[in-house]
Specification:
elongated; single chain; four-stranded antiparallel sheet; disordered C terminus; Immunoglobulin-like; two-stranded antiparallel sheet; alpha+beta
Amino acid sequence: MLTPAFDLSQDPDFLTVAIRVPYARVSEFDVYFEGVDFKFYAKPYFLRLTLPGRVVENGSEQGSYDADKGIFTIRLPKETPGQHFEGLNMLTALLAPRKSRTAKPLVEEIGASEVSEGGVEAEDEEFDWEIEQVPYEEVSESALNPQYHYGFGNLRSGVFQRLQDELSDVIDIKDPDFTPAPERRQKRLDAELAKFDPDHYLADFFEDEAVEQILKYNPWWTDIYSKMMASLGKSQEQENHAALVSFSEEEKYQLRKFVNKSYLLDKRALRQVYYSLIDILLAYCYETRVTEGEKNVESAWNIRKLSPTLCWFETWTNVHEILVSFGRRVLCYPLYRHFKLVMKAYRDTIKILQLGKSAVLKCLLDVHKIFQENDPAYILNDLYISDYCVWIQKAKSSKLATLAKTLKEVSLTKAQLGLELEELEAAALLVQEEDTASRAGRPVSRQQTPACPPEAGDTEESDSTTSRETEGSDSEQGELSGGESETVRSWQGPFLKERGDLLIDDGVCRNSAVERCGGSPRKPPASPRAPGGSGPLIEELGEQLNSRVQVSGPEDSAAASHSSVQGRGDWQTPSD
């Protein structure tokens, strides 16, 4: 039997079921409905639905068939006229069989032996002492280690022992089956600190034209949210908000393909499911906004990289730590790293949760499609997203409303991210003000500075070319932008001459300028920046300010100003 495509709609008095059966024999079909049960049969199609409300057979039911489209349309009268049926677009949940409402035990022992008066069961058979024995085998230490769980509701384990090769490019954690949750978190925090690049952050902080353009984009949920707020202004009824979210035919097809199942989750596991849902939605909102709704080859990378749930199998204890973790990762990994984007994704997630299950389901279906088209990210669908798409259809709307309210009450500041952002911004602004004041007193150009004459053939263009060549050999070039080429964005602002300079340690970028000024070049570090990498940069900015105070004489002042300008990797380009 085939499950046909179907759609449900309603008016105050009737529930309408539209069933597409293009190859059915119209002369032979059967329809049954009573209470919340609905069944339709037309060979080779069979459809059984558990309706969200009760219908009744009272003679006013209607049916029609469109031969051109192959659609049966059946109008069923509601048992209570005016009642609103919720969840008509939750197709997977509608296909589920009705739950048993009996109070009888699900497992019952039949034919149990009687108990004697002394309370000892009668034993008719003699006990068999010939127990099968096997030779002793020493158990390895690894077999004694307990396996740790992950996935939706922490219901999975042992997956990565079988798929280690495929999953190495999907997640950041190594050997998650034997890594406890506290160790996962500590490794994640260390990796974020090591990855944070102050130069990249300052570039996006001062050159924010692209970020401002992204912030102006209105994703699909913006208009729906506006309509919901407008309807709330006229009426306090919230039950019709689900009708504002519509699903495409492709999304409906995917909903019918999901295998309906129930999940046995205790309170702790259920809390983790809701917390992880926030984490996934935050990553999805960021991705949708920065790509302006146009998915690309980096979309799967962005979502899983920004969600610790997906790439570190993180577990949560409160909403605030979810927001802190998301903010840190936005400022460490993707192409656009700005605190405004963190807060915008935060507000977008609140809107989606307030719109209800339909909006959340639409987001999850979008994530499912992105992962399904990306190899090997599709494994995350099996671990998380597919189960979320089935579970959310049965989740209580009141729970999502409470979750949105809780998230809305949480606040986030830059200081809470633990990346010394405020100190970094203050130090950079001081350097910028000193450079501005120095140029106002005596204009200094790169070609006319007596203390640092340019060498023959030494131009800004050659410096830029050298920087790009050095950048091409950097081992971490693709990781900052998710594998994108460094030529995607070009910067000619006061802090970085090129976006490619972000991929080179600041000590390497400054060597050529320092050598021309007569100083000794700084040796590039032998290893990546240590955790808390913004500290050394702040100290260097402070040293530059101290050196300016000690400068005497107009020429020395100009030379010091020029050295500072060149020494920061063209952070502040002098006026020509």
